Amino acid sequence: MASQTAIDHDSKEFDTKAGVKGLVDAGILNIPEIFVRPAEELNSAKKNIEVPIIDLSDIGSGNRRKEIVNEVRIAAGKWGFFQVINHGIPLSVLDEMMEGIRLFNEQDLELKKEMHGRDGAKHVQFSSFDLHTSETADWRDTLTLSLSHLGSDPDPSEMPSVCRRSTVEYIKHMKRLAKTLFELLSEALGLRPDHLGSMGCCRGCSILAHYYPACPQPELALGIRKHSDAGILTLLLQNHIGGLQVLHNGQWFDVNPARGSFVVNIGDLLQILSNDKFKSVKHRVTANHVGPRISVPCFFSGDSSQLDEAFGPIKELISEANLPRYKEFLLKEYLAKAVSSPLDDKPPIDYYKL
Ligand SMILES: O=C(O)CCC(=O)C(=O)O
Ligand SMILES: [Fe+2]
């Protein structure tokens, strides 16, 4: 692992506001030391087992809905991850979102630099993320498009013009799909379909757009290090390159991209709400010889109107036989911990375990 002095030196050298893509464009053959991970973090994935794929067609018909709810219950409880197909969002919306993000990253560098920043002060920022706070950097550039739990939704005029229209359209569809998924997840917990929705779960949504350039030494780096998502639910769109892996029974498994699908994963907050009936699992993204890989996760983590609300396991799920596994906390306390800690630190969920 790189020494702290090497990290400081390397990250200053690297921090040209051109991001990881800037390194690739400069034609580097060896990746800087700040990206090199210890060998034990780079163990490979098992093949031939897929995370569940759930087909949402005919969701309104009684018997099929029961089956879908059952599939969601198993996937959320055993894997914490699943993919959904036939979700009703037109392919053109997904393609335009991806294209907008590609255009943003591949536009003239001087224009891109105007959006550069990592202090969280603006709704829309582009950077190599936690470059200065983590021991090892991820092989990716990230555009933050909104952090609605920290304030109001961003004014579309704050968004980069190349992806503004596509992002506004995309967010509308994400909110609709999230409503459907929260209904299914509520039913899978044995609750009324509107239970999670009426708690405000689908209110705030934050978008990140990751751009993972091709890497000259992918065997040494990660696109995004092992972590679980701190929020309630994540819906993720990825292009065809692949690299997302989930940890299941102590082994890494690939989440192979299926055209037109969304990856859905349970966040730490939903694991808490469900009192561990649903699992929030660790995942990571490998670096790859080919690229760019583009992904757009949309995180549902509550919004600014809920910051003073108490969160904890849902009362209806608690009984003598199923005692609470977490203590209650204020959402604002939790989110402050999530925002201030780098991905490899102690996650906020660990503070509330009983
Ligand atoms: O790019 C991906 O597939 C995963 C991104 C991710 O895990 C995250 O942003 O939390
Ligand atoms: Fe994640």
Topology:
Elements: H1 4-14, H2 19-25, E1 53-55, H3 62-78, E2 81-85, H4 91-106, H5 109-113, E3 125-127, E4 141-146, H6 164-188, H7 195-198, E5 206-212, E6 222-227, E7 233-238, E8 244-248, E9 251-254, E10 262-266, H8 268-273, E11 283-286, E12 293-300, E13 310-311, E14 329-330, H9 331-340
Parallel strand pairs: 1-2
Antiparallel strand pairs: 2-10, 3-4, 4-5, 5-12, 6-11, 7-10, 7-12, 8-9, 8-11, 13-14
Helix pairs in contact: 3-6, 4-6
The structure holds 2-oxoglutaric acid (AKG) and fe (ii) ion.
C-alpha-based Rg, rounded: 20 Å
Ligands in the model, by name, code or SMILES, are: 2-oxoglutaric acid, fe (ii) ion
CATH topology, what is it called? Jelly Rolls
Kindly report the spatial arrangement of strands forming the biggest sheet: 1-2-10-7-12-5-4-3
Order of helices and strands: HHEHEHHEEHHEEEEEEHEEEEH
Q: Overall 3D geometry?
A: globular
How many DSSP-defined strands? 14
CATH class: Mainly Beta
Outline the biggest β-sheet: 8 strands, mixed
Q: Give the termini separation.
A: 34 Å
In terms of DSSP E residues, the strand content is: 15-25%
Q: What is the CATH homologous superfamily assignment? A: B-lactam Antibiotic, Isopenicillin N Synthase, Chain
Family: Belongs to the iron/ascorbate-dependent oxidoreductase family.
Cofactor: Fe cation
Organism: Hibiscus trionum
GO molecular function: dioxygenase activity; metal ion binding
